[in-house]
Design goal:
- The chain is built from 15 helices and eight strands.
- With about 375 residues, the chain is of the alpha/beta class.
- It has a domain of about 150 residues: Rossmann fold, CATH 3.40.50.11890.
- Strands 2-1-3-4 form a four-stranded parallel sheet, sandwiched between helices. A four-stranded parallel sheet has the order 6-5-7-8, sandwiched between helices.
- The radius of gyration is 20 Å and the shape is globular.
- The two termini are about 30 Å apart.
- About 50% of the residues are buried.
Length: about 375
């Protein structure tokens, strides 16, 4: 498919493309590690939000700053930062997704050329008090973006941005729903590829690009291998190598519980509420990740999504030293098992060699499910 090949090229040359886009007057570029960042506000400021992701086996230069028993995913992201890959950023937004992520505020501020960094203090608890607090946080975030871009974020521009992102989420939901069909015209790796590529585009172009992919997928004849339908939960590394590894092992990833996946589009922003209030409420009360409590809604979401997309099993990759997911894993595994779905946790050190070590476990797990059909 042309759109899929375009997506691969966009990801491969993303730093060059974004630098050229900026040089041609495209606007400011704001990086983010976490999807708890209200992208609607970045877009309303005229800037382009860009998701920062790590690469497997890339840890060059980080040992001087980060000990080895640190999340390898964040080590990889930092390696890209100190290598200058993200020097085109005008600002970076860091959330308190975990302890090491929050420390990226200091490390990127001192060791990269990113000129402005904002710490988005996201609450760990979901209640009325935290909603009031987070409303104040995003008000400060609004002021930060206005100072970076020189553009006033008005209620009208923010409302327009909210509508655009809601439309994008609807299109993304349609892309995900392709894997509810039988046979499935796309697999998980292809879906993640076009999703990550869309996150490199202004929101209107991103929505149109996903629309192109949808149209091509609808008439596709060279279908991907129809492996065992599997859902992915666990540490959100949004990594193509990991997805490709799982599908090469006999799976077909039909759904996920990732912040760049189902949790990203599951709930829209209320377009009838005051924009800042609506953003605060949506991001705080959206399907939580493992760092936010209460966790019950997340457990129910995993099981609900697995059933909606007809997954026959769940694979749970957990990156080494990911405290959030390691503490949460026993509860998640118990809930999934009690729902009747087989589940396999695997340790991921963010290297290709590490994936090969767990290949026998993954292949055996998938084979057992296949034999039970």
């Amino acid at each position: 498919m042309k759109s899929l090949e375009k997506a691969r090229n966009m990801i491969e040359s993303r730093h060059q493309r974004l630098s050229e886009w900026k040089e041609k007057g495209g606007g400011k570029v704001v990086g983010e590690f976490c999807k708890y960042v209200p992208e609607e506000m970045i877009s309303a400021s005229g800037a382009l939000p860009v998701f920062i992701s790590g690469e497997m086996d890339r840890f060059q230069g980080v040992d001087r700053f980060l000990q080895e028993n640190t999340c390898p995913y964040m080590r990889s992201c930092f390696s890209a930062g100190i290598a200058g890959d993200y020097d085109y950023l005008d600002a970076l937004v860091v959330t308190h997704g975990c302890d090491i992520m929050s420390k990226m505020h200091d490390f990127w501020g001192k060791r990269t050329k990113v000129p402005e960094i904002f710490l988005l203090d996201f609450p760990h608890k979901v209640n009325e008090a935290s909603l009031v607090f987070f409303r104040e946080v995003i008000e400060r975030f609004k002021q930060f973006l206005e100072s970076v871009t020189g553009v006033e974020i008005t209620e009208a521009s923010l409302s327009e941005s909210i509508r655009a992102y809601n439309a994008f989420r609807r299109t993304l939901k349609a892309v995900y729903d392709l894997r509810r069909q039988n046979p499935r015209p796309v697999n998980g790796t292809e879906t993640l590829t076009v999703l990550l590529a869309s996150m490199l585009l202004p929101i209107g172009e991103a929505d149109a690009f996903l629309g192109e992919f949808l149209a091509e997928a609808g008439s596709r004849t060279d279908l991907p291998p129809q492996g065992v339908p599997i859902m992915v939960t666990g540490t959100d590394v949004s990594n193509l190598d990991l997805f490709q590894f799982l599908e090469d092992s006999g799976a077909l990833i039909v759904s996920d519980d990732l912040c760049t996946g189902s949790r990203y589009f599951w709930h829209p922003v209320d377009e009838n509420e005051a924009p800042l209030d609506a953003l605060a409420r949506r991001y705080l009360t959206n399907i939580p990740c493992s760092r936010t409590v209460p966790s019950e809604e997340r457990y129910e979401h995993i099981i609900r999504v697995a059933k909606v997309y007809q997954a026959q099993g769940v694979i749970m990759p957990i990156v080494d030293f990911c405290d959030n997911h390691m503490f949460d894993a026993p509860y998640v595994l118990n809930r999934i098992s009690n729902s009747g779905l087989p589940v396999l946790p695997i340790e991921v050190d963010f290297t290709r060699g590490g994936l090969e070590q767990v290949r026998p476990n993954v292949e055996t797990f998938i084979e057992i499910i296949a034999q039970g059909e």
